Structure formats: C-alpha cells, structure tokens
Amino acid sequence: MTAKVRIDLTPVGDTFEVKKGTPLRDFLFDRGVEFPCGGRGECRGCRVRVAEGHLPLTDVQASILSEREIEQGWRVSCQCRAETDLTLELRGWNADILQDRTLFDFTPGEGLGVAVDIGTTTVAVQLLDLSTANVLGVRSALNIQARHGADVMSRVAYALTPEGNGTLTASIREQIGRLIRDLLKKSERTEGMSDTLSEIILVGNTAMHHLFCGLDVEPLSAYPFEPSEDGLKEFASERLGWDIPGSPTVRFLPCLGGFVGSDLLAGVLATKLHRSQTPTALIDLGTNGEIIVCAGEKILCASTAAGPAFEGAKISHGMRAAHGAIYKVSPTSNGYDCHILGDTEPRGICGSGLVDAVASALDKGDLKPNGRVVTESRQIPLAGEVFLRQCDIRQLQLAKGAIAAGVRILCKRIGIEEEDLETVYLAGAFGNFIDHQSAERIGLLKFPSDKIHPIGNSALLGAKIALFDNASVQQEIASILERMDHVTLSSDMDFQEIYADEMGFPTASNFP
Predict the structure, then answer these.
(1) What is the pTM of this model?
(2) pLDDT tens track of the chain, all 512 residues?
(3) Are 78 and 35 in contact (CB under 8 A)?
(4) Is 231 within 8 Å of 423 (Cβ atoms)?
(5) How far is CA 63 from the centre of its chain?
(6) Residues 6+ apart with CB under 8 A from 38
(7) How many of the other CB atoms lie within 10 Å of CB of 40?
C-alpha cells in the first residue's frame, strides 16, 4: 500500500491526503497558490508557512528567503515535497476575479450561450440565457497554465520546449470544458428554459489565443513579436474533447495585432470606443499591459511588457487581492496607515496597495523621485512583517514606465497630446480598484480623476455582446479591425528615451 500523508491548510480549513513524496505544487496550485516563476525557485511567490510538521530548507530556499522568514517557518513550496503530515499556512492567494454583470443592449436569441475570458492569471466563464441575457451561472479559477509561469513570456518559453505547447493547449482546453460542464450541471434554470447550448465565445490575449487554438507560438518569442495567425478561430466542441449537449460552435475572437488580443477587441465592443466622437483610450493594466487610443477614424493599439507587479507577483511580500492583503495605504506622521482585506493580520500587499504605498513613500520622503529608498534600513516598513525592498520599487518602476511610455507614444503617433484624451477606460480588476490620485502621484496615469472610468472585466462583457446578433457583431468587428493599426513600441525611435524618462517618479512640487 502506498504511504499517504495528511495535509491541513489554514486559514481555509481544507484537509486531505496525498501520496508521501508528492510535490507541494501538485496540490497547492488547485487551492489558489500561484507559482510566478513556473516552479523554478527563482521567486518567493509560492511561500507557505509550516505551522506543524517539517519541510527541509534547501540551498535554493535559503538564497531567496530572509533569516527571519526561515525562523518563522516559511518555505518556498515549489521546492518542497510532502514527506510528513503537515499543517501549512497559505498566504491568502485565491482564484476570485472581478465578474461582470453589466446590462447591455442585445437582440434576443435562442438557447444558452457561454462567454469565456482566458486571462494569463485567471479564467472566467459565464452561462447566459440568450433570450434574456440573464447570467445563469459564473465560474472562475486560476489559469491552469500558470503552473508553468506567471507571465506571458514565461508561458511562451515553456511552450517552445518539446512537450510544452501540447501540454499548455491540452490543459487549458480541459479546464474550460470542465468549467462549462460544471456550469451546465449546477446553474439555476427555470422550468421550460432551453437546455441547448448554442454557442461559446472565447477571448484572451494573443498568447492565450495561440495556446488554446494549438497554434505555433514561436513568432511570439522574438522580435517583431507578430503572430502568423491571429484571426477568428472556430471549432466544433467535439474536436476540443468537450462532451457538451447540443454540440455548440466554439469561436475564439480575433486578436488586434502583436500581443494585443481579442480581450481588448472585446473591450472595444464593451466601451463602444470605436464610436467615440472625442479622443478616447482603453488601458488594461495587467501582466501584459495593453493600450488602445482612438481619435477620429484612427485607432491605434500596442502592448507593453508591464510584468506582474500590478498583480502582486515578483514583489517580495506581494499577493493577490485576497484575505490578508494590504490594499490601501496612506502616510502618517510616524509611519503608514494600512488597510487590510478581511480586517486581519497582514500577509502581504496587492497591486492597489503597492501603488498607494509608493505614492505615500514619495510624499513622506522615504523614496526619492529616481526610485531610491532612503530609509536607514533601505526598506519601507508598512504593517506587521510586510515591507517593500528596493527591488520591489524597481519592479513597479518597470511596470508603470512601460504603461506611461506606451500611452505617450500612441498619442504622439495618432496626432494628439495626452491631455487631449477626454475619456480613459481602465479595464480589469486592478484598474477597478486602483486609487487614481496614487496612480497620478507615481506617474502611472496622468489624467484628472473625472476622465478615468474603471469598467471592470470589459473582456467578459464584450464576449457576452458577441453572443448576440452574430451577423451584426461580425460586421462591427470587421470594421474595427479595418481601422485598427498595431504599433510595435520598441520600433519607435523615441521609445527607449521615453521609457527611461517614465521610469522616474514625479517630484513633490508637481503635487501641491
């Protein structure tokens, strides 16, 4: 008989058994722990604390954990196996993401439809009644591909290994099919409502598009990062291995160019940006920051390698916006006032808290405009054991510099100034919760608050819109694609200079 060990997870209260010697990553990922570096022991994103039991400290762990963390029992779980019974304290990561229930105009259809947003980090699935557009059920989860890296380029690099592409394609298809079957089985449908699933619409960035569709990602791995195939892809559900009643058609909407995917196309549909009479922008602040600027008949798009800092990854004490995360920070006379999700002990800091903390440190003088931490300890203490290191500030500078440079270059290319933008839509969960004043203080967003409009999960909303009146939507998408030009930012002769300029923070004199 194979020996088993008992695993208790706190504070979630989950208890189960696994085979002795099982790698922790094999069961912790499904319970909300992410592995930003793909499990290579190059980051600290998958930390867990050993409350009971024993996990040996390896040389790799000793090189990236502080002495205090080691004394407190923290370990890097991707480097560990379950050899004894364990009680592990998780850092509060979870799979919750912003779900969309926005009302929209539609032409009633027949049967049921499913909208899917495949994000680099998370997957969101909604089941709709096409006669009413009512949402009948919602499922979300960590993107199973994140086992092999937190960001797009880590995923692409793994896909180029002999088994990588097939593994990533098979895993994401299986995950989405499972989520859809679960929705159909457990959703609340009234008597007489159709059980026929007519259509499934998927959106995602270009890498997710390629990896779901089973396309070659090699063109995405090197300059000029232009995919060979980025158009609309249609599948019979049976071809994907999905045993779904009604054999619905599965459509993955087309990408816009480079790393700007169909999630941004869906955002255009959701915001009607292409119909705007005034200069308008759409910005998705994710691991792969994506920007669209529209002025007159011109629409330009670009992507920036912002990195995962806005989602808390690659930050020393970074985490997603979950229980125990510092999500809001303001300066005080003797430190920092930190607000914590769940009103509990701080476990880490999420993206919105990071932006607040850096803005506050600039105001207090703990941080210079060039990004140098000037406290005696060379750290910025926040709450409990949570603090920011110099390397964390650099990660944020890289992310915010990339976004700010992208906006500047697109505005220049389309023939307007940044201040000419009348409306700036912020997509995604991070964009919905970021403090606009803090974002302006660090130089991420240089717009008055009344111009900024958080729109939540516009990708999911746009995918739902595409479920209705198919011919009309396809015509509208064709019109958007015809007007859209993709800009490769690195090819702009001023990019490096603008990027370097945007890495710094505004001086205090700019903020009375």
Answers:
(1) 0.81
(2) 578 989 988 765 678 888 999 988 888 876 767 676 667 787 777 888 898 899 999 988 888 887 878 888 889 888 999 999 998 887 654 444 446 777 888 888 888 999 999 988 789 999 999 999 999 988 888 888 888 877 788 889 999 999 999 999 999 999 999 999 988 887 766 665 667 898 999 999 999 999 999 999 999 888 777 887 778 899 999 999 998 888 899 999 999 988 899 999 999 999 999 999 999 999 998 767 899 999 999 999 999 877 667 877 778 888 877 778 899 999 999 999 999 987 778 888 988 999 999 999 999 999 999 999 999 999 999 999 899 999 999 999 999 999 999 999 999 999 999 999 999 999 877 777 789 999 999 999 988 888 999 888 899 999 999 999 777 888 999 999 999 999 998 888 888 999 999 999 998 766 54
(3) yes
(4) no
(5) 28
(6) 147, 148, 149, 150, 154, 158
(7) 14
What is the residue whose two structure tokens read 């980025």?
230
The first and second tokens of residue 493, run together, are 């002769």
> 384's torsion region: left (phi>0), alpha (psi -120 to 50) or beta?
left
What residue ranges do the domains of the chain occupy? 4-89
CB atoms within 10 A of CB 229: 13
> Using omega within 30 degrees of 0 as the cis cutoff, is the peptide bond preceding 224 cis?
yes
Token pair 């914590």 is found at 340
Sheet of 348-349: strand order equals 335-340, 325-332, 348-349
Chain position carrying tokens 């406290």:
375
Q: What are phi and psi of 123, to 5 degrees?
A: -120, 135
Q: Catalogue the E-assigned strands of 363-465.
A: 379-383, 386-389, 423-427, 452-454
Pairing of strands 197-204, 249-252: parallel
> E strands within 53-106?
74-76, 81-82, 86-89
Residue 190 CB neighbours (<10 A): 8
Phi and psi based region of residue 371 (left: phi greater than 0; alpha: psi -120 to 50; beta: remaining) = left
On whether the CB atoms of residues 286 and 264 are closer than 8 A, the answer is no
**CATH domain 4-89 topology:** Ubiquitin-like (UB roll) (3.10.20)
Report DSSP state, residue 507. Answer: P
Helix (H/G/I), strand (E/B), else coil: 102: coil
